[in-house]
């Protein structure tokens, strides 16, 4: 979305956060799971009653021409990587014609202007698409095969954002482990970590979406050794049982061993898991439960399986899925609270973003933006968009209070 906004503002349009002041609303949609699609539909229908909505993203890419029937009240539809369609969007803003443009997922990574939505951290997308075929995932069919961005282009993009005052960069992709294999015929993530570290010694980087395969050991070591990378890694394991991992069509790895290695290296581990996956037997669930209980994962993302492509039949009862999901969520809540309480009374680096006049909100530097925990202070004069040292005094509603 930042790329599309960048291209639009470059052509003289103004972005406003307040919908009442806007002439058009750009709505970026998700289509990863059933709940995300329902949410996208609800929001699109609600907003299109008030404003002219331009619908973008994965939902459009996935549904193609069916969007005309689903949203008769909307005229403009564009698939993923919306920035590529800037001209087409602007040409048709005031038209009455129905327009649908899908992303061809051409074998190229587009470098476009950015309109950053934050002033401290930003996301650097190092590749688009994915060449793996996890059985539950629609991303390869929506976003196409892997297209990596060249290392020197990534360095230039970071350089530009640094000149604009950005201090922290979240390195993202659909599959960070395989970065570069299409362009350079070999994995280049280690080289990228090395180049970013060498060129931006006083900046912070965080590695997200690292697929757990044989490369994980070297990647974790590189993050640990780097002076610029935050000691944090996101490795979406999806499950711990070999039986389920096989049904997911993912590489067989020892999740327990990898997790122990990550903890030994002193990194914060974020991971996501799918509960109630087809063929998840009681013993598989027990393995997952025992794993979560062990507390390897510092930041847990948990999803209940939903059949996304009719390829794998949903074999676990809905009530069983809910039961298993709730068991894991409750275990994690207890562990998360315990971890948070360990920070009380200590000083931590934090960054604050916005204030509602009464409180100011931000996050600890060790937490990833947008997905991890929130820190709140009533000292609304705290400096924003810069690192400050604060003492955590309490935990309330799973928020740090300082
Ligand atoms: S690696 Fe990630 S994006 Fe690729 S198919 Fe698997 S889950 Fe989907």
TrEMBL record:
GO terms for biological process: tRNA modification. Its cofactor is [4Fe-4S] cluster. Signal peptide: none annotated. One of its GO terms (cellular component) is cytosol. Gene3D superfamilies: Methylthiotransferase, N-terminal domain, tm_1862 like domain. CDD domains: Radical_SAM. GO terms for molecular function: 4 iron, 4 sulfur cluster binding; aspartic acid methylthiotransferase activity; metal ion binding. Keywords: 4Fe-4S, Cytoplasm, Iron, Iron-sulfur, Metal-binding, Ribonucleoprotein, Ribosomal protein, S-adenosyl-L-methionine, Transferase. Residues 1-95 form the MTTase N-terminal domain. The keyword Cell inner membrane does not apply. Residues 116-338 form the Radical SAM core domain. Pfam families: Radical_SAM, UPF0004. Transmembrane segments: none annotated. NCBIfam families: MiaB/RimO family radical SAM methylthiotransferase. This is Ribosomal protein S12 methylthiotransferase RimO. It comes from candidate division TA06 bacterium 34_109. The lineage of its organism: Bacteria, Bacteria division TA06.
């Amino acid at each position: 979305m930042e790329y599309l906004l960048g291209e639009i503002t470059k052509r003289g349009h103004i972005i406003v956060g307040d919908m009442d002041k806007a002439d058009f609303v750009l709505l970026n949609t998700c289509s990863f799971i059933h709940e995300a699609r329902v949410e996208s539909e609800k929001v699109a229908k609600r907003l299109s009653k008030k404003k002219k909505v331009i619908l973008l993203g994965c939902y459009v890419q996935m549904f193609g021409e069916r969007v005309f029937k689903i949203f008769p009240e909307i005229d403009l539809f564009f698939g993923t990587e919306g920035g590529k369609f800037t001209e087409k969007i602007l040409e048709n803003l005031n038209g009455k014609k129905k327009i649908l443009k899908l992303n061809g997922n051409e074998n190229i990574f587009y470098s476009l202007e950015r309109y950053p939505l934050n002033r401290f951290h930003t996301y650097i997308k190092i590749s688009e698409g994915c060449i793996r075929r996890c059985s539950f995932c629609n991303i390869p069919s929506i976003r196409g095969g892997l297209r990596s961005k060249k290392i020197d282009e990534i360095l230039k993009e970071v350089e530009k954002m640094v000149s604009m005052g950005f201090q922290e960069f979240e390195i993202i992709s659909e599959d960070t482990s395989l970065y570069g294999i299409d362009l350079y015929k070999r994995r280049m993530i280690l080289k990228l970590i090395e180049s970013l570290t060498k060129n931006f010694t006083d900046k912070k980087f965080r590695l997200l979406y690292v697929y757990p395969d044989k490369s994980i050991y070297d990647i974790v070591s590189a993050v640990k050794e780097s002076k610029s990378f935050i000691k944090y890694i996101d490795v979406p394991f999806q499950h711990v049982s070999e039986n389920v991992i096989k049904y997911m069509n993912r590489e067989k790895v020892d999740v327990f061993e990898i997790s122990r290695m990550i903890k030994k290296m002193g990194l914060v581990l974020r991971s996501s898991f799918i509960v109630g996956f087809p063929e998840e037997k009681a013993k598989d669930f027990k393995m997952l439960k025992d794993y979560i209980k062990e507390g390897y994962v510092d930041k847990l993302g948990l999803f209940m399986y939903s059949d996304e492509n009719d390829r794998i039949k949903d074999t676990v009862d809905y009530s069983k899925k809910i039961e298993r999901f709730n068991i894991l969520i409750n275990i994690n809540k207890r562990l998360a609270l315990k971890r948070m309480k360990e920070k009380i009374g200590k000083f931590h680096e934090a960054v604050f973003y916005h204030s509602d006049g009464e409180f100011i909100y931000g996050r600890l530097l060790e937490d990833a933006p947008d997905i991890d925990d929130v820190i709140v202070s009533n000292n609304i004069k705290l400096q924003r968009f810069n690192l400050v040292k604060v003492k955590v005094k309490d935990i309330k509603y799973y928020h740090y209070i300082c």
